[in-house]
Amino acid sequence: MRAPYGLNILDNCLACPMREEHLFCNLPVAALQRLNEIKSTAVYPKSAMLFIEGQQPRGVFVLCTGKAKLSTSSAEGKTVITKISEAGDVLGLSATISNRPYEVTAEMIEPGQANFITRDALLHFLREHGEVAVRVAEQLSRNYYTAYEGIRTLGLTNSPSERFAKLLLGWSNSPGNGDPLQVKLKLTHEEIAEMIGTTRETVSRLFSQFKKKQLLQLKGATLIIRNKAALEKMASS
Amino acid sequence: MRAPYGLNILDNCLACPMREEHLFCNLPVAALQRLNEIKSTAVYPKSAMLFIEGQQPRGVFVLCTGKAKLSTSSAEGKTVITKISEAGDVLGLSATISNRPYEVTAEMIEPGQANFITRDALLHFLREHGEVAVRVAEQLSRNYYTAYEGIRTLGLTNSPSERFAKLLLGWSNSPGNGDPLQVKLKLTHEEIAEMIGTTRETVSRLFSQFKKKQLLQLKGATLIIRNKAALEKMASS
DNA sequence: ATCGCCCCGTGATCAGGATCACAAATAGCC
DNA sequence: GGCTATTTGTGATCCTGATCACGGGGCGAT
């Protein structure tokens, strides 16, 4: 098996090591077998676009490895990142289900593999396998909750510092990862700014301030949280 | 049939005059009949709470008549209104499906009737009637899109005036209603502020400015849009 | 090594809203 | 019809973060 971009390919969903943790992948064998037949697999380099905001939905992408950022932009070039997707996420689901244009752009920020399922194949598949439709509804609910959290933080929180604190805590409470106080930074200040609705400069200043206040520390690209309690107080202020 | 709060009760979904326009109500007769059996009907006065953010989901409400506002609040009492729900909307769906706490508070702002379906009954119903599960997925996708729009406007738009213009245009393009240039105002400035993430005072000033600029006009509680083109330019600026 | 490109840090300025504080107006309500 | 409670208009002040500007640093290509 070729390994472009230095990655191993997971060709068979049934043999996928992460199958169990992934909502959409942890299916009855029969369904998964069928899924395995209708999917096509590809590996993407960094900054590859899986799909672009406004395109007619071609189908869904199941992210197997790597990370992607989901973003939306305004006419004037301002951008918001709505989510950093990780392995196991299903991208483009709501657009594909409802047959409306993709509402976000999905761009790889870490190279990885994604399985693609065309809209037609997916719809057929869902009709055949009712139990999967429930998964779809679950995933949609999840997406909704995430979007919803976004609204809460953007709407209820007018200070960038508060949102910044929230973001840092979100990273440190990363799921599965036992509350690490160290996080590898993978986003540029610009991208962080796009996540919390502020500017690059402000993010830069926030890092400075937070360092000065002993809330955090930077070792190269590793972020160390020094005073979690204080961050939590800021975040919920 | 009693008519509390001056409203007629729609007791039978099959005979509902608005059945066709409502995504969740326009079902095959067999399914609707069953739905009719498992629902319970109630009429709510203004400012009645259907459910409150954080509560365990008891089930869903199908709004038959009237309007409700969906909102979420922070610890410090700041509030965002995420949506004004109209007849035909299904409230509490994602929370009920995923069995997570209601993520918003639903409060009637115009008295009306709602049919309630318990979580258990709904889940049974969905299993029996697969075609309805598709409706649910559709409705969830819809909700997602709405939430998503919220993020876009809150995140990409930092000026209240822009968001205000957007809101006005949203009203004037109200669905089904052939682009009326007149809209009956039903929200207080405070509530409008909560929709566009600003303060009551700013909304007041925005109305003044927009009137001065001949963009709109007020006749009592009726809003008349005077210069739609200009509003559109502001909204997409 | 050198160039060029993208990131990052930080200063100076500036404006738009948040906030506070009243007064006027309106809407319900008995 | 009058009375209270809510809603609205508007002024004054203040302050945060957006914007502009520029220099330094890292890193990959050639």
Structure description:
2 copies of one chain form a homodimer. Chain A has helices at residues 29-38, 93-98, 119-128, 130-156, 160-172, 189-196, 200-212, 228-235, and strands at residues 40-44, 49-51, 59-63, 67-73, 79-85, 90-91, 105-110, 112-118, 182-184, 216-219, 222-225. Chain A has 237 residues and is α+β, with helices and mostly antiparallel strands. Chain A has 2 domains: 4-156, Jelly Rolls; 160-235, Arc Repressor Mutant, subunit A (Orthogonal Bundle), CATH 1.10.10.10. In chain A, the strands form 3 sheets. A 4-stranded antiparallel sheet of chain A has the order 1-8-3-6. In chain A, strands 2-7-4-5 form a 4-stranded antiparallel sheet. A 3-stranded antiparallel sheet of chain A has the order 9-11-10. The mean pLDDT of chain A is 89. The structure holds a DNA duplex (30 and 30 nucleotides).
Q: Mind telling me the CATH class of the largest domain in chain A?
A: Mainly Beta
Q: How many β-strand stretches of chain A?
A: 11
Oligomeric composition of the shown chains: homodimer
State the secondary-structure class of chain A. alpha+beta
Main interface: chain pair and counts: A-B, 39 and 39 residues
Largest beta-sheet details of chain A: 4 strands, antiparallel
| Total domain units of chain A | 2
How do the strands line up in the largest sheet of chain A?
1-8-3-6
Topology:
The structure is a homodimer of 237-residue chains.
Chain A: H1 29-38, E1 40-44, E2 49-51, E3 59-63, E4 67-73, E5 79-85, E6 90-91, H2 93-98, E7 105-110, E8 112-118, H3 119-128, H4 130-156, H5 160-172, E9 182-184, H6 189-196, H7 200-212, E10 216-219, E11 222-225, H8 228-235
Antiparallel strand pairs in A: 1-8, 2-7, 3-6, 3-8, 4-5, 4-7, 9-11, 10-11
Helix pairs in contact in A: 3-4, 5-8, 6-7
The structure holds a DNA duplex (30 and 30 nucleotides).
